[in-house]
Amino acid sequence: KEKNAAEPEFLQAVEEVLESIRPVVEANEEKYRKEAILERITNPDRQLIFRVPWVDDNGQVQVNTGYRVQFNNAIGPYKGGLRLHPSVYLGIIKFLGFEQIFKNSLTGLPIGGGKGGADFDPKGKSDREVMAFCQSFMTELCKYIGADVDVPAGDIGTGAREIGYMFGQYKRIKGMYEGVLTGKGLTYGGSLARTEATGYGLLYIVEELMKCKGQEMAGKTVAVSGAGNVAIYAIQKAQQLGAKAVTCSDSTGWIYDPEGIDVALLKEIKEVKRARLTEYADARPSAEYHEGRGVWSVKCDIALPCATQNELLLDDAKALAANGCIAVAEGANMPTTMDATKYLQDQGIWFIPGKASNAGGVATSALEMSQNSERLSWTFEEVDAKLNQIMVNIYHNIDDAAKRYGKENDYVAGANIAGFEKVVEAMIAQGVC
Ligand code: NDP
Predict the structure, then answer these.
(1) Which SUPFAM superfamilies does the annotation name (predicted)?
(2) Is the reported ipTM for this assembly greater than 0.95?
C-alpha cells in the first residue's frame, strides 16, 4: 500500500480483487505463499514510460508522456488498450493493466494483460496533429510490442483513426506487416464487429443474466452513461433486444430521452461530427439536456455505466435502488466505486463487474488476432456469434465460480476468482518467472 500510495486507482483495483479472491487464497495459503503468487501477480512484468515529442500546427514542439505496462503474460501475449486522455498517469495504466489480466483470462482466449496510453488529449486537435502524436508515440512503443509479444488496442481517445496512424508507423519502422494492433480498419486487417463488440457483448451477458433469472430484456428501461464507443453500441443492442435505452452522457452533460435514444442521431453527432450532446437535444424534441452528471437519477430497470472509472457513486447506487433498478452491468472499466458496488449487492441488485461484462471488446480483439494469423477475414455474423457465445460462457463461468465458493449471485467474486484461478495455474506451471 505504501509503495503505491500515489496510485489510488491501482490500489482500489488490487484491493477489490484481493478481497474477493480471499477464499481461494485461504484454501491454497501455503502454496501461494511459497510461490509468492500475490506479490508476483500485483507487480507488473515491466513498466515503460517514455517521452513523446511532436510538433503542433503552429510549429511548436509539444511533449507528452507515454506508458505501456506489460503486466502478466502467463496465458498469452500482453493485450490491452491504449488510453489517450489528459488524466492518464502511471496509476491509471497500472489499474487498467491489472484488471486486464483477469478480464482476458475470463474470455477463455490465450491473451495476457497489459495497458498503455499517454496524457495526450486528441480532442480539439487537427488530424495532422493527432498523426504527429501517434507517429511519435509508436516510434518508441514499437521497440516493445509485436504480434506474439504485446498487442495494444484502442481505449478512451484511441479510435480507428489513431490505430491507423500507429499501425502505419509500426509497419514503416519495422518493415513488417503483422497483427501488432487490434481495432484496425477493415481494409487492413481489422475484424468486422470489433467496433460494436464491447457494447454488444455487454448486452449479451445482460441478456443471459436476465434469461437465467427468468426475466426478459424486451420492455426493460435501460440507463446508459457515456456517449462513446461502448455506450453507442450498448444502446443500439439494447434497442435491438427490445429494451428502451433512455439516457447517455459525456463529460459535460447528459441526455434524457424518454422515447428512447435515437442511435443514428447519436452516432452522427459523436462519430462523424465529434460534437457535444447539446446538439442531440437541439435535433430531437423529445430529449432533455442537463449540465453535469445525473444519468443515475432516472428510473430504470437496468443501469449500464459505459463512460469512465468512478462515475457511479454511493448516492447514485441509492437512487438506482430507490427507483427499482434490478441489474447493473459495467461497460466501462471500474465505473462503480467499491461502496456503491457493495450497496447495490446488499440491495439484491445483480451486479456484473466490467472485467466480465465488458470483455467482449478484448475477446473480439483476440478474434482479430486469430484472423490476422490465418490471413483470413470472418463475416460479421461469424464474429458476432462467437462474441455472443463467449459472453454467455463468461456469465456461466463467473456464476459457477461464485457458487463454488458459497457466494451465489456475487459476480464480482465470481469474475475475480474464475479469472485468477486460470492465470495462477499457468504461473505455477511455468515456474518462478
Ligand atoms: P470513448 O472515448 O469512445 O468514450 C468515452 C465516453 O465517456 C465519452 O462519451 C466521454 O465524454 C465520456 N466520459 C469520459 N469521461 C467522463 C466523465 N468524467 N464523466 C462523464 N462522461 C465521461 O471511450 P470508450 O467508449 O471506448 O470507453 C469507455 C469505457 O469503456 C472506458 O472505461 C474504457 O476503458 C472501457 N472499455 C472500452 C472498450 C472498448 O472496446 N472501447 C473495451 C473495454 C472497456 P467526452 O467525449 O466528453 O470525453
Answers:
(1) Aminoacid dehydrogenase-like, N-terminal domain, NAD(P)-binding Rossmann-fold domains
(2) yes
